[in-house]
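dumping these here so i dont lose them again. two proteins, back to back, each one seq then structure tokens. dont judge the mess
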Amino acid sequence: MVGAGWAYFEYLHKEEQQRIEGSLGYVKRFSEGPMLESTNRIDSAWYAYREQLLKLQDSSSEAAYLQRYYQLVMSVVELTPIPAKYGVPTRGIVGDVNAVESFFSELQICVSSGLCNGTAAHAYFDSYAQRFYCLHEPYLSWKAANYSSGYGKDLAKFAARDPLACRRNVSAQPSHQ
């Protein structure tokens, strides 16, 4: 009987180790290669607009703030000049925002399905995911309404964010962990 209990304990321990390893795989993926390039371009784009983002806090009313904020987010996401690695410069960080949104959506599915350890994933990613979601919420909502009805839903769930919780609570630069 003790042997069966020990075997069960070992089985549970091994499963938890696999969930933690799954979460650490996301950490590695986020911290190098194309994902790191995307987060760096996003950070650079917003850094260029940090003054305008901070000035929004001085808006005379919530309605004026929301209008100006929405316009700024859409301009940064769609129009920011991005230096090209090879060839002609591009405009906007749409592809980068989509890549990060997809990353967090996949991570949320991994956590929800029990394949990744939620505690480890949230410990590493919560701060960035929350800032990213709040900073880009107007774009995420616009894309969900106009192109893909579920867009941003899993990111919001992972970041534990309601769009209204983000109002006037954005960072000028979503720093990479």
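---- next one ----
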Amino acid sequence: MNAAGGASLPTVPEYLNTAGARYEPITAEGPGTPAINCFPRQGWRRVTRELFPNAFGVWALPPQPDSNWLDNSILLVGHLTGTFDPAMLLRCAATDARRLPHWHEERFSTDNYDGFESVSITGTYVAESFTFWSFTRYLLVETTNGHYWIQLTTTLRARDGVDPSPQVPRLIIRVPADAAPSPQQFAANRSSPAPPAADEPTATSEAYRRPTPPPPTVGPTDLPDDWDDDNHYYLRNRKTGWTQ
């Protein structure tokens, strides 16, 4: 499915800018933040923070010899301040993917994830003669310190006959008891109606394996010199102001 209608909505950064809200990148847990754990699959390695200083975490597989492409997962976390409509924010989540070149949507879901409001979108796009498979999950998590916007995107080269979905990391989000908002606070912030379903949505579920131990760190010398520039289409053409 090509959800052209959904692409007409603003992206999340565009919406927050129009609403006058602000996104502040969070790179580590702290007082009032959710507890965030991401478990990559076997063989994935963590990319050093100096390459992506505003990301909560980045993981990659070894580069492919024919293109220097690295299958990758990027976890972004941001603290939201200012006034915004949570329902509209969730509606805008899928726009970024739907604007990718030659986007073909496979799955879209607005189901909650582990009790948190969430949107997930899966599909393929074509760039520089390669076809890429992309999965992104967005979560809106509320604590006594405000709202946190969490985005996990996994991008892989599409391969005939290979299901890439098992490569998506397992994401576990918890709000500590002392940071959980009261039911009254949560209800007050949810006065807006729930986001409407997109055209022809289909439910999605990821087949998760048992979490694996933390992978070894990938140092800058383990990656192509221009990986985050010339040879990484996702970061060059789909990055927001949050990851620069």
